[in-house]
Amino acid sequence: MITSIFSKSKPINFVIVAIAISIVFIIVNYPVVAPEFQANVILKTFFKYTLVLFFVFVFDFIISKNFLSKKNSYALMTFGLLFFMFPKSLLFSDIIIANLFILFSLRRLISLHSKINIKKKLFDAAFWIGVASLFYFWSILFFIAVLAALIYFYQNDFKNIIIPFVALITVAILYVVFNIITTDTFLGNENYLQPMSFDFSVYNDLGKVISLTIFYTLFVWILFYYIRTISDKPKKLRPSYNLIIVYAIIALVLAVISDNKSGAEEFFIFVPFALLMANFLEVVSEKWFKEALISLIILAPIVDLVL
Question: Does residue 142 form part of some domain?
Fold first, then answer.
């Protein structure tokens, strides 16, 4: 039933997902806002809520603009459901903002297939990743995706190689200038360099273990399926699909090494997971199997709450 609703791309589907995410957002953020019912707290929370909805809008736009899936809303549906699985991803503004800038970067990289304004797009992609790293340091790993794009779209021009690095240097210069003006120091953010963490003790809970097992099993499974079928994609769009694979692997690594082991780190995997799931659901002919996969995602947070 759920997959039937989202089997076609309709404006109402965006509204349904937006309402669902809004409900999760309110449930998760209400305990934070309620004890300190102050104007600045409410404004910050509302700003965070606006960012989340804007993120969903940009994500949906990128999919339709670059033909990353057929004319359906499976990616949008999956993306919305993942917030139910990992509601704490709606708590941390820095992670939300970092992911938004990474999404901007991905948009520029995917559009490279048009072979138009390659230098500008490479600069923009690297620039947005640099900005994202100011909010969440390990976002810098997505710079690897820019280097991968250079391999896929390389045109015998040395400038193409140095442009992404110039973009990062530009971000660094702007950051230093901003700090000098505002704080009279070169580096105002002492916590910019974040450590790696492989401490998963926070997940020593049966409900969370089951939820994460479902999530990562599905993710790895559809990722390998996606890689195996990449040759069936249109030749013109194949480099864009390869970039999504690179993006997915980077997101997985980032989630593993992140020092924020709260469930919010999984936000980095939402976009590739949703794209991969959409492409998988498109080729599955058995309706019952589609419903079973989506039911697993829905049941995961319920199991986490019950156990």
Answer: no
User: 64 lies in which domain range?
Assistant: 2-112+199-306
In a domain, 213, yes or no: yes
- Structurally, the chain folds into a number of domains equal to 1
Identify the DSSP state of 106: H
Block residue for tokens 């989202």: 6
Q: Are 166 and 128 in contact (CB under 8 A)?
A: no
- Answer yes or no: is 238 within a domain: yes
What would the pLDDT profile of 219-255 be if each residue is shown by its tens digit? 998 898 888 887 777 777 777 788 889 999 999 999 9
Look at residue 107 and tell me if it is in a domain: yes
Vertex 269, ends 188 and 263: CA angle to 5°?
70
Give the model confidence (pLDDT) of 129-179 as tens digits.
999 999 999 999 999 999 888 877 765 566 788 899 999 999 999 988 888
Q: What gap in Å lies between CA 190 and CA 205, rounded to an integer?
A: 33
Contact between 149 and 123 (Cβ < 8 Å): no
In the block, tokens 């999760």 appear at 24
Cα–Cα distance, 88 to 28 (Å, whole number) = 7
Q: Do residues 52 and 264 touch, judged by C-beta distance below 8 A?
A: no
Task: List alpha helices for 67-157, DSSP H.
Answer: 74-85, 93-110, 118-135, 143-153
Residue 250 in contact with residue 59, Cβ under 8 Å?
A: no
Q: For residue range 268-307, list pLDDT tens digits in order.
A: 999 999 999 988 888 877 787 878 888 878 777 776 665 5
Which 8-state DSSP code applies to residue 200? -
Burial class (CB in 10 A: 0-12, 13-18, 19+), 69: buried
Structure tokens at 281: 């659901």
What residue has token string 């890689």? 227
